[in-house]
Amino acid sequence: MFAARRKAAVAVALGVGAAALAAAPASAHGTMGDPVSRVAQCYAENPESPTSQACRAAVTAGGTQALYDWNGIRIGDANGRHQALIPDGRLCSADNDEFKGLDLARADWPATNVSGGPYTFKYRVTAPHRGTFKVYLTKAGYDPAKPPAWADLDLDHPVATATDPVAAGGFYTFSGRLPERTGRQLLYAIWQRSDGPEAFYSCSDVDFGGSAGTGTGTTGAASPPPSASAPTDGQIAAGADKSTIGHHGHGGDDAGTSAEPSSRPAPDNAVAADGSSKTVLAETGGSGSTPYLAVGGAAALALGSGALFMSVRRRAHRH
Predict the structure, then answer these.
(1) Are 279 and 268 spatial neighbours (Cβ–Cβ below 8 Å)?
(2) Confidence band of 288 (pLDDT split at 50, 70, 90)
(3) CB burial class (10 A; 0-12, 13-18, 19+) of residue 167?
(4) Which residue, 152, 289, 301, 314, shows the most beta carbons closer than 10 Å to its own?
(5) 188-239 residue pLDDT tens
(6) Collapsing DSSP states into helix, strand and coil, what is residue 182?
(7) pLDDT score of 234
(8) Which run of H or of E encompasses 279?
(9) Lowest-pLDDT range, 19-33, 157-171, 178-192?
(10) Model confidence band, residue 163 (pLDDT cutoffs 50, 70, 90)
């Protein structure tokens, strides 16, 4: 009789595990695509031989892997505690050593040309999820040749806020408004998931024109920095096999500050041979490319449920 009860309990545990997996969200990943983020810009230039001085310096400081992992600047247990977890001078890397090259204080990062007024932001996403985007701009007088600090951002007046936008074509698109500025400024985007504590961060260099904040950076180069350009779907697909960013549901479950290595990279924004994008929508509509995630996750949950049952049984036996 006990054996029968044990089998029934295990069956229930397996069922609960499978149901929990079905309800559990997958990991979210991404970076600002317009205005182009630093990591996206350097990836677009080619991690192995970037063309701009700033991106070459970033590779020298942090290596090429950070660029292949362009969609993984994250904190797994952020839960809104951004300022408490990220120190001044480390905003662009989210205090993650893998991405430390993005924190270099330079005034020659490739920048997106902008002007004051309405702006349509595009956030490149490889695993869409519910959550809130907030985009901040540096205050007037910002010096791009100094490491950005929280006090440099106008945190009281985000230039864009969007909750649960709909992903389409590999991007979240939402509207905002840029104030009047001159020269080079920095946009800082925070994507805080609402279905888990994980948050993503990105720095985008922008140029409003004029003379303020147009220094030459640490290199002393007199020529103006190049304009920013985002990677194409083809470029993203070409480097996917070198990424260590996994999409196995770890986001929000782990408390690490960097994306976990994966022995089987599986970019959620796969690109077919014909160049078409096949974005997997985790919360806003899945695709047929995710079953292996469900099988692996169900097995893990089943094993955990089984272990829980055996633990309860042992405690009951001891008493």
Answers:
(1) yes
(2) very low
(3) buried
(4) 152
(5) 999 999 999 999 999 999 999 976 544 444 444 445 667 888 888 888 888 8
(6) coil
(7) 86
(8) strand 277-279
(9) 19-33
(10) very high
Tokens found for residue 114: 């902008």
Q: What is the per-residue pLDDT for 33? A: 96
3-state secondary structure of 68: helix
- Cα distances (Å, whole numbers) of residue 192 to 161, 169, 186, 200, 228: 11, 21, 19, 7, 25
Q: Read out DSSP for 103-172?
A: G---S-S-BEE--SEEEEEEEEESS--SEEEEEEEBPTT--TTS---GGGB-TTS-SEEEESPPEETTEE
CATH, domain 28-242, list 2.30.110.10, 2.70.50.50, 2.60.40.3780, 1.10.1740.10? 2.70.50.50
Q: Is 178 helix (H, G, I), strand (E, B) or coil?
A: strand
Q: Which of 304, 298, 207 is nearest to 21 (CA)?
A: 298
Which token pair is 187? 């946009």
Rounded CA separation 277/169 (Å): 7
Report yes or no: 152 and 95 within 8 Å, Cβ to Cβ: no
